[in-house]
Structure formats: C-alpha cells, structure tokens
Amino acid sequence: MKLYGFPPTRSIRVLWTLRELDVEFEFVNVDPTKGEHQRPEFLAVNPAGKLPVLVDGDFILTESVAIVLYLAEKYPEKGLLPSGLRARAEVNRWLLFSATELEQPIWRIARHTSLYPPEKRLAAEIPIARQGFLEGPPLSSATPWCLLFAMGKHAVFLHPMWLALDS
To answer: Topology of domain 2-78, per CATH?
Structure first.
C-alpha cells in the first residue's frame, strides 16, 4: 500500500488512520509548495493533482474521508469503526460534518496562525472562525474521536477546552 501525501494537508487524516491501524505502507511525500503535485509522474496517479492518494494494489482512491473509511472497513478486526448501523451512521455524520462544515474555520485559523507569511496574517480572523464553530451543532460523546479522526493536527483548534486559549 502506498500513500501519496504532504503532512500539512488532509493527508494527515490518512497518515493517522494508517498508523492507528498499524498496517505497513509506503509514504511518498508530494510537496505542492514545490509544484510536485503537477509533475507528470504524480499526475499519472491522480490526474486532478490533489492530495492525498492511496494506492492499494491496482486500486487508486482519492479524498481523505473516503480513504479513511476504506481503510477502516478494509481492516474491521482493528475496530476503528463501530459495527452497529446507528453507531456507524453517527461516525459518518461527524466525518461529513467535519469535512463540510468545520474545515473552513479550521483552515481559516491555520492560515492566519501558521500557513500565511506573518505579514499576511489577520489576527481578527481567528476569533471569527472560532465563533462560527461555537455556534455549531451540539457535540456528542463520539465527537472528539471523530473530530480528531477527521481533522488531524488542526483538531487542537476544535476541542472546546482549547477554544478559549489564545493562539
């Protein structure tokens, strides 16, 4: 199994999942800041030029949430996903919520705390992004696991205990 990724991207979700599952894989670093995602050898794997990409034999899969669900289902004995229909629906709900609703404020915070050059960072953006999260839906007991699973290293910005902290 081979994972093409770059750690500061959504690839972190897949890396974390592979490590949680304790399965062997080869990591191929593709640095988009150096244009490596547009090189012909990578475009042969994913013509869209996006990360992450999982290659499992002759199967190629893109999109981080799809990849982590594929891996969790491929290795059911590892217990990463619950077996009950309703419990699995809750996991899917939070994974999709995090991908569709939480990524925007997370990336907004990440851009203005570490990704943008210091002169382009706007400190006022951080509380605005956090406020949008605080006004979101109520959290369940499954939420912290799902948020960490879905968000990787930027989950630190989401945990309610840390939302009050200054960056």
So the answer is: Glutaredoxin (3.40.30)
